[in-house]
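> example.struct
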């Protein structure tokens, strides 16, 4: 058997229309299936997280795993990590921003908390997203945001999508 190099590994997500549900989108990853929310173009709003929610969830999950891994590696007394991520579109031509808040539970001293806050920046998904968006991280604020949630229509309104006239 020939060993595969890192470049040959593929992570595949399949998104397809669910014809039984007003053509709502369904994502498939391995054996998992999940609804993808947002407008379907004919007046229906499909339930489920929209693509921006999924992107934010990916950053939050990767951050939590990275912080947890670094705490275990250093044998730090981290009992719980909670990561809240919100995305804000940049003004026209400017970069968008992910606001990331970490709540770290456990008997951590200030130096350990600072280390784990920095460890959040080692998150591989954050490194990829940081190429085209700013990521701001803060610690120990309440992670459940009190701001008004944006809709996918709000996200689409922020983007300049040209009208394409089919031939």
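> example.seq
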């Amino acid at each position: 058997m020939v060993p595969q190099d890192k470049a040959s590994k593929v992570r595949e997500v399949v998104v397809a229309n669910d014809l039984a549900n007003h053509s709502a989108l369904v994502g498939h990853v391995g054996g998992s299936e999940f609804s993808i929310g947002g407008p379907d173009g004919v007046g229906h709003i499909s339930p489920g997280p929209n693509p921006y929610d999924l992107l934010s969830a990916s950053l939050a999950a990767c951050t939590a795993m990275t912080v947890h891994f670094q705490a275990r590696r250093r044998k730090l007394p981290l009992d719980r990590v909670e990561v809240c991520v919100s995305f804000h579109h940049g003004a026209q031509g400017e970069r968008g921003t992910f606001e990331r808040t970490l709540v770290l539970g456990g008997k951590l001293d200030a130096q350990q908390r600072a280390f784990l806050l920095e460890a959040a920046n080692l998150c591989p998904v954050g490194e990829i997203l940081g190429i085209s968006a700013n990521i701001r991280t803060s610690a120990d604020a309440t992670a459940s945001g009190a701001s008004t949630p944006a809709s996918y229509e709000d996200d689409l309104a922020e983007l300049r999508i040209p009208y394409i006239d089919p031939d």
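> remarks
Helices lie at 51-73, 110-119, 124-129, 152-158.
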